[in-house]
Amino acid sequence: MASDNVFVSPEDSVMTNLSPMDAVEPTVDELLDGALSPYLSDDQDGDSPFVNEDVTKLKHAWVNEKQAPDLLPYETQLVEDLTEMLQFIEALQGEDAGQPFTVMLYQTEVERIKYLLRSYLRTRLQKVERYAMFYSGSEEHLSRMSAGEQQYIHQYRGLFETHMTRTCLDKLPESLRALDETTGNIPWNDTAVVCRVQQDVGEISVTETETVEMRRDNIFLMPYQTVEKLLQSDQVVLL
Amino acid sequence: MLGDTAYKLAQETKRTQAHLTAYNESLVEQLCRETRHIFAQLEALLQKVNPALGRSVDTRAVAAQLAALHATAKRNKRCLLAYHHLRLQFLKSLFWSVGKIPDELKPQLSPQEQDFFSHYAVLVSQYKHPFVDIDLNASELPPRDLFIEVRVLKDCGEIQLEKGSLLLTRNSQHHVKRSDVEHLISQGLLQHIG
After folding, report:
1. Which of A17, A6, A30, A3 lies closest to A106, judged by CA?
2. Which residue segment(s) compose the domain that B171 sits in?
3. Residues B122 and B152 in one domain
4. N or C: which end of chain A has fewer CB atoms below 10 A?
5. Arithmetic mean of pLDDT, A10-35
6. Record's family (chain A) (predicted)?
7. CATH of residue B79
8. Residues in chain B closer than 8 A to A83 (CB atoms)
9. Are residues B47 and B84 in the same domain?
10. Quick check: is B140 in a domain?
11. What is the distance in angstroms between the Cα of A228 and the nearest Cα belonging to chain B?
């Protein structure tokens, strides 16, 4: 997956930034240990991977959202935690500059997380707009949206309908004025997606007669609807 | 011929994919008129087959005519919606990439479309209000470097950076933090040079 490769994971990015340096320099862990501690809350260990876990989760959520044809449930907690963390880190950097080198590492990382977040939110907005007619009438999809997105879809639909009415629908005979054609625009859940299995799932049925065994780290290309359930329980991730 | 106007509009829609052409109000108007005319014809036809009038007509011929006219009316509507929808899509992508309507494009838009654009801008800004720190309009490309080299193409005066301020005069070159100047690059005031 190209878009997956573009973003370098936190661990990798540290490596690439350090690569010109020689082995005589302190190791990555030593460097990060000291630098991380001011940003960790008291109940965490100094080398706790707490920052990375959320970022990895966001990365998965982002790729899933990019690849899935349908809207996925909004990661309320994750987005909230990460925005809070970003604000926290930026506030800290104002007062405690630290070593210029580590500060730069952090700022680069912060920029990257911000990119992930905004791309995640944008991807969702694009889907919401595209299927506005369909989603705004479907309880199930509305429940997958954040409060902001629900407000957005409602207003967007209103805006869209007003525009269409004013430009052409009003001039048509009355029986043609309803906006029914666009409701035909629904996500196509048959689209093939590539997924990686995160944990052993066992046999699942692909067609009426066929089943496959999904083991951890297997990679499959299959219709989105087949993996939809597994995706929502985090048993697979899309690639 | 029946359906010709709709075909013209469909062709125009296809051209819109590459670049925005001027809003073709006369064609839209003409197509709407044609559709209304078709409906008048339909009603007249329905009157003809009304059994209460007791006239003998070939019902099969009338049925074929009805079906053809009805299909044309539906197709006209579809073409109209597609035309307007695609233009809105263009406007939206313009909003996300540039943030405003460039002056040279303004004459191409209908007043309703300009309205849509400003309402859309309000809508998006409402949505992103809770996300103070995240600039949703920023580039869709993942960031590679924290600092970038930029050349100033047009005078922008003094801008506020995270720390301090910077005077951007034309043709000067600066080494700045990417997130500070991203919006200026997308507006075409600065040029990113390596």
Report:
1. A17
2. 147-193
3. no
4. N
5. 49
6. Belongs to the GINS4/SLD5 family.
7. 1.20.58.1030
8. 131, 133-134
9. yes
10. no
11. 27
pTM of the predicted model over 0.80: no
Between CA B74 and CA A182 the distance in angstroms is: 13
Burial of B181 (0-12, 13-18, 19+ CB in 10 A): buried
Do B158 and B95 lie in one domain? The reply is no
Give A216's strand partners: none
Alpha-carbon distance values, B99 to A33, A154, B25, B102, B121 (Å): 41, 22, 25, 9, 8
Of A90, A152, A163, the CB nearest to B123: A152
Chain A residues in contact with B134 (beta carbon < 8 A) = 83, 114, 117-118, 121
Within a domain: residue B139?
no
B49 and B122 co-located in one domain: yes
Tell me the nearest-neighbour CA distance from A171 into chain B, angstroms: 6
In a domain, residue B66? The reply is yes
Contact call for A172 and B140, based on CB within 8 A: no
DSSP B142: P
> Does A86 touch chain B if contact means CB atoms closer than 8 Å?
yes
Q: Phi then psi for A72, rounded to 5 degrees?
A: -100, 160
Strand, coil or helix: what is A106? helix
Residue A133 has a pLDDT of 86
* Cβ-defined contact of A115 to B178 (cutoff 8 Å): no
Query: What proportion of chain A, given as a percentage, has pLDDT over 90?
Result: 14
DSSP A70-86: SPPPP-HHHHHHHHHHH
Query: In terms of domains, do B87 and B178 share one?
Result: no
Please state the domain count of chain B: 2
In a domain, B36, yes or no: yes
Better-scored residue on pLDDT, A26 or A129: A129
Whether residues B188 and B115 share a domain: the answer is no
**Shared domain check, B14 and B82:** yes
A171 has a chain B CB within 8 A of its CB: yes
> Alpha helices of chain B — where are they, by DSSP H?
4-16, 25-49, 59-97, 111-128, 178-186
Residues of B in contact with A145 (CB under 8 A): none
Q: How far apart are CA A189 and CA A186, in angstroms?
A: 9
Q: Which of A112, A164, A176 sits opposite B143 (nearest CB)?
A: A112
